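# nightly structure sweep
# worker-07 picked up a monomer target from the shared queue
# config: single-sequence mode, recycle default, output format = structure tokens
# input follows
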Amino acid sequence: MLGVRGSTPAPGADFVRYGGHTSCIGVSRSADEPPTLVLDAGTGLRGLSAHWSFRPFQGAILLSHLHWDHVQGIPFFVSGDQKDAKVRLFLPGQLGLTGEELMAQSMAPPAFPITPSGLLGDWSFEAIEPGVHTIEGYSVRAAEIRHKGGRTFGYRVSDGRVDVAYLPDHVAAGPITPAVEALVRGVDLLIHDAQFLEPERELADSYGHSTVDDAIELARRLEARRLMLFHHGPGRTDAQLDAIAEGVVASIPVDVAREGTVVEVVAW
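# output follows
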């Protein structure tokens, strides 16, 4: 877990134990291997370079959508910004634009000093559609999910032994769509948006997110075997996240995502 926050980084003493970086998860087949598949590229992406001993990155980045908290780490990813790096970046296709054109909407002057083409190394930017893709040797199912402000994908990643579903920004309340069912049904681990609490329902609905209870209910209905609460609100302190963890009532294991942890996913 390289970054577990939503919306904006959360620095300061109240956010040390769970971490303040925004969404980013590295995926590898064993703890002895550096991640070659990365889910989202928030500010947590900066931490991936240490796992590569600051050598040139060779792998793929899979973006769920293009909101700032999911892309801000890209130009500050030291291992990716080297002449010998080879990075394939995948993102939801939309607006009839190429992947590089979509990235340049937030990464170009006057909003930023360089465009995506200014990154060192061999970068490709690929706009993809829903369906099953083979990326870095993993089977990756992409499906459109409900979230406000641009096309958003959830992903189901499988190495043939275990399946992980990643839905960091998602409106889980209401009817379950066939796309979400295909992503989540029976997964070994569901990593899901839990930015809000039930008393904050109006905000959750307004911003297109889920509550903790929404995530737990979705996991229950679709028989996920383990749930990781993710995309914590930037104002949610360590003490408040402790209280969420202590108050969870569920029939499956439920964890509260912490930056810096390694999560071993095993088949049941």
